[in-house]
Amino acid sequence: MNNGLLVGFSAIPRLGIRKRGRRSVVAMVQSTTRQVWTCFAAQECVVGGKRREAKEVWRKGNSSTRCVQEGSHVVRRWESSTQWLYSSSSSSSRLWMEHQLLKASSSSSSYLCHHHYFSTPLVSRVLSRNGCLPLPRSRKTTQEEQQHTKKVLHSEDLKFIDWWKQKLGECVKPLTKQMAKRLKDDNLLGLDETLRSGSMKARLNVELLAIKRKFPHEVLLCRVGEFYEAVGYDACMLVEYAGLNPMGGSRSASVPKAGCPLMNLRQALDMLTGQGFSVCIVEEVQGPQTRGQLKERFVAGHAHPGSPYVYGLIGADVDLEFPEPVPVIGISRSAHGYCLISVLEMMRSVSVEDSLTEEAVVAKLRARQCQRLFLHKSLRSDASGVVRWGAGGLLWGECQQKPQEWYENSPVNELLLKVRELFDLDQDECFREIVVPPGERPRPLYVSTASQIGILPTAGVPSLLKVALPPEASHLCITYLRNLLLHPPPFQVAASIQAACQRLSEITSSIPDFTCVSAAKVMKLIEAKEANHIEFARIRNIAEDIIHMAEDSQLSSVLDLLVHPTWLATGLQINRKQLVEDCKLLASIVVEVLAVDGDPDQIVTTAESIPDEFFRDLEEHWRGRVKRIHAEEEFAAVECTAATLSDAVVSSFLPIVNCVKGYQKPLGSRYSARKAEIGYSRDNQAVWFKGKNFKPTIWGQMPGESEMKRLTPAFDSKGKKAGEEWWTTSDVEDALIEYKTAVDKASSKVVEILKDLSDKLKAKMNVLIFISVLSVIAKTLCIHVSEGKRRNWVFPLLTTSSNLASEDLVHQGDTIKNPEAKKRLHLVDLVPYWKDPTREKAEPNTIMMDYMFLLTGPNGGGKSSILRSVCAAAVLGLSGLMVPARAATIPQLDAIMLRMMSTDSPADNKSSFQMEMSELRTILGEATGRSLVLVDELCRGTEVQKGTFIAASVIESLDRIGCMGILSTHLHDLLDMKLQITNVVQMAMGTKEIDGRLEPTWKLVDGACRQSLAFEVARREGVPENVVQRAEELYKLQSISSTRINIPVSSNTIWVAENEEVLNVQNGCSNIEEFHGQKDCTAMPMLNLRKELQLNGHDSQLQSDGIITAKEYTFGPDKKIKDVMVIYENICRTKLLEINHFSTHTGAMQLHCSLVGPRQLPPPLTTKHSCVYMLQRPDGQFYVGQSDNLVGRIIHHRKNLKSNETSFLYVMVANKSVACELETTLINQLPSWGITVVNKGDQNHRHFATAPHIEPPPF
């Protein structure tokens, strides 16, 4: 109706009214009434979106239809034209015009009231006066605008607009920020209606808004011609994360818009999903279209992280690589521990893992991505209201690095509701719960354990995954192995895996080349009916492989054993008989439809006079997919039309080619520039005549000249001339159209057949998932056995009993005598897992363990290698796999804990020793008599004496628990202590003397080793010889000292001697023992604390008796780091005296406290030296730490603090052990002086097993 009124009134001035003047308007209107309003009535009949029919009606009546276009300039033309007609007419003519308008609007007044074209003053006044439209009260806010605003902005849109504004706030590119200035927050697209292309009444924007409301968290990409375009918020995300430039420039007067060509769609989707976004793709309906007809669009699919866009794959001859599915994860807490809920939308599955430790949850989070992370309110507090969540927790720190959202109610059911809402699923959409086989199962690996044996990628740590599998292993095999090792299976399943591996290593018959395909890929393609012939062929191969295993006498038992681990991985339980029957059914269905290789019916058409590329381009994408019997009619039509086309080309073009060749032969080079051939235009997919200067100057009667006269220029699909060289005839064009039509029908028929095949297989979806996973498991185990045999690895004996004597283990090749003996951990000739004995030398070690080892040895002697090797062997054995040894017995362990190193965490106010104690708390709290505990250099982060006592107490605690394990240490005083232990023995890494020097043997021996070989290691690593020699001199001097300084450190008082030469620190009394036998020890020059405090402006706080106490002397709230420099230096000096760091009294004066100012770095002198440092945070508090890489640590702190103005104090010390002791002393004593230090004890003990490669969060 609106289009009719627009055509009627805007066309009248174009019929010649203006040429005759205003006086003749009335007569002209009356004379053209029949013509104009006949078209008006025709338009009235086609109201409701069929605009193309309306335009066709008007085109027949008048050629001025070109003015009928949507746009502000046409509306203004229409308004001015109607206003001119109205004002220039007589009163009777005005009444007639009003009558016609009211007559036309009588049946659709409600539609007129809201449409843009009827909001002009003229029409509004006419309709309002006659009761069809109420007069607006004012121009400020009309009723139409209010209704339009309600239609554009819904109340539920507000939370999603805030979400997109938050995403915009994370953008950093200048182009994105410029585009964001042109956004408006009054609609979900972010469009400003005052800008060009921003009207929310435009059809495309209306469609996009409706889709955006359906998928509010997704980026919309809409196909427009040869581009995929995005507007508003979505355009900003495309520019920020997909590396595209805005369309129209960043300062355009139109709404923000960006897009990518068709060929770059996959790349843009990968970049967006890689940043965690989901993308909704809107496609256009393809096919022939009348000129001016509006294109229909539809939602073709979605791309999520781990779930690519699959629309159109069914007709493509490509194999899309599917990434690992990315789940939506929920985390909650109960009385049993943490609960991890994983929901895979692609698989329609949910798995619930309960009773997890905090460290196990973090390990699983780091092992895979997650689309969304939901945190249950139970994490914040328990039933009694005790707070559990906040800064300082390991899980808290991990979750801060991911987008997160809190939720309540039932942890599982509420999470499923959120997933249905997130992916726009029906509320009754079912999710299959993955139920694992029953039986006792080891606990998941902690972050530190998984990181230190390379299951999780860690810098400098060899990857166990790359060693257990050959280099050619697919990502599906690597993913399965990683998940298996991160959480070893139940003991019964591990036994099945081991038995299957043993059978695979023994059989003599041929083994199928198991086809690996992602179960998620199979499910998504089948559900979306986008599986092409490649995927169906893989399904057929998998089914046939399983049938072959079932029918082979040697492989049949392997198939029986593989059912259990497949049940564990999929949560689906299918017995062997049913599995084989379903595979036979699947294979028969697919074989019946898919074409056979070499079938002559699938050969592409060829013709002698037509280029082969033409037929290949038009037929290869559908031939060879299905058997001809299913599309006989279509195949025959293609052959028939191809023959017709060949005949047309021969009769129309071949005489011309021969004629031109006849010109060239007798006339020689004069006519050599003539060109004539039958060519293929790939861009237009057409066979045409390609000629240049081929027409004769004088026409004669030569053969081919008549055909030349029938040639016409060739045009492309858009009606443009294809080129000066391309020619065709009507016969060829008709034949070409018929052939292309037949090809399109054949291609559509093949796609239809493949979609029907997807429908048939959909009923067996669970079986498809099961056999896909089974094939991946079989492939993984097969290549693992091959690689293990190449490396001379063996299958361990998995035991359950608690008694196994040493004599029960004897070397008989790769076997173990007395298989009835069950529990202890015995590894014969164990080698580091990263060593390949067939290619490099590796020192084997035999370990017989049913107790704790207290392991000592020199630096570089192999202590850490032993720990990693034992851990890797235990994890592999518990998973049913081969281990790097000559023989092995592994008991059923309930947990494996490996702690290798700790780093400080300034963000959590924890020093390295605090982190170490946090890990130790978890070990002591969770270890049982069936656990394997491996700790490297316990208590190395604090002073030697107290660290030794802590380590001794830990050894006694683990001994009482009764667990197995190894504790390596350099604290040699432990060897002389009388500990209350019954299950701990001393072991050592051996050394031998070569040319007067001790060298490590990397062999495990009984007893203890008190040699550190520190000087030898320093020389081997390139430390300057003069430095090493001086260190040896200091060491010898200290070793022959008859006495030691014993100056206990007071925590509250510092005494300054009256002679201002000696600083004595003790609990209220003076006590300096004789130092190395020197009587003038009391005259040892020391830094005068009183003098330095006076120089720093603190003279008023000094007491007359020379005593300064922490109570009497405190720093104000505005203290700076320079103010505490004196106290910092003297505490360090005092502590160094206490631990006998200086060998002479003059050495104390060499201690120097240095200041690193803003935008400064320490000198290169600090490189490879242990330093103790202190920094002041922006909140005025101080942080103390130690590092062997001071420059790197300062850069890291400033990066986290986001400020280069941070200043540091530091002192250099001899080694890391001294630095750790100074660090602890400073943390304990500085608060007594009113200096607030953020390093506090780990009260919650939540940082066990922090992976070293993860950087701590900012302050």
Alpha-beta content class: alpha/beta
Main beta sheet, described? Answer: 6 strands, mixed
Q: Count of helical segments?
A: 40
Q: Report strand order across the widest sheet.
A: 10-9-6-7-8-11
Q: Specify the helix fraction band.
A: 40-55%
Shape designation: globular
Please state roughly what percent of the residues sit in beta strands, choosing from under 5%, 5-15%, 15-25%, 25-35%, 35-45% or over 45%. 5-15%
Compute the number of strand runs: 32
Unreliable stretches = 1-92, 102-142, 801-822, 1042-1114, 1141-1149, 1241-1259
Question: Can you put this structure into words, describing what you see?
Answer:
A hairpin with a 5-residue loop joins β30 (1170-1176) and β31. With 1259 residues, the chain is of the alpha/beta class. The strands form seven sheets. Strands 10-9-6-7-8-11 form a six-stranded mixed sheet. Strands 21-22-23-19-24-25 form a six-stranded mixed sheet, with helices on both faces. Strands 3-2-1-4-5 form a five-stranded mixed sheet, with helices on both faces. The chain is 40% helix and 14% strand.
Please describe the topology of this protein.
Elements: H1 2-11, H2 17-20, H3 25-31, H4 33-45, H5 51-61, H6 72-88, H7 91-105, H8 109-114, H9 121-129, H10 143-152, H11 157-169, H12 174-180, H13 203-214, E1 218-224, E2 227-231, H14 233-241, E3 257-261, H15 265-274, E4 278-284, E5 297-303, E6 328-334, E7 337-344, E8 349-356, H16 358-367, E9 373-376, H17 394-399, E10 404-407, H18 411-422, E11 432-433, H19 447-452, H20 464-468, H21 475-486, H22 491-506, H23 519-527, H24 533-551, H25 556-570, H26 576-593, H27 612-619, H28 632-667, E12 675-681, E13 686-692, H29 705-709, E14 712-713, E15 726-728, H30 730-762, H31 765-790, E16 797-799, E17 825-830, E18 845-849, E19 852-856, H32 863-878, E20 887-891, E21 895-899, H33 912-926, E22 931-936, H34 944-961, E23 964-968, E24 984-994, E25 997-1006, H35 1014-1020, H36 1025-1039, E26 1053-1056, E27 1063-1064, H37 1089-1095, E28 1107-1109, H38 1125-1138, E29 1154-1156, E30 1170-1176, E31 1182-1187, H39 1190-1201, E32 1208-1213, H40 1216-1229
Parallel strand pairs: 1-4, 6-9, 8-11, 9-10, 16-20, 19-23, 19-24, 21-22, 22-23
Antiparallel strand pairs: 1-2, 2-3, 4-5, 6-7, 7-8, 12-13, 13-15, 14-15, 17-18, 17-20, 24-25, 26-27, 26-28, 29-32, 30-31, 30-32
Helix pairs in contact: 1-4, 4-5, 12-14, 21-31, 22-25, 22-31, 23-30, 23-31, 24-25, 24-26, 24-31, 25-31, 26-30, 28-30, 38-40
Pfam families: MutS_I, MutS_V
Keywords: ATP-binding, DNA damage, DNA-binding, Nucleotide-binding
Domain DNA mismatch repair proteins mutS family: 931-947
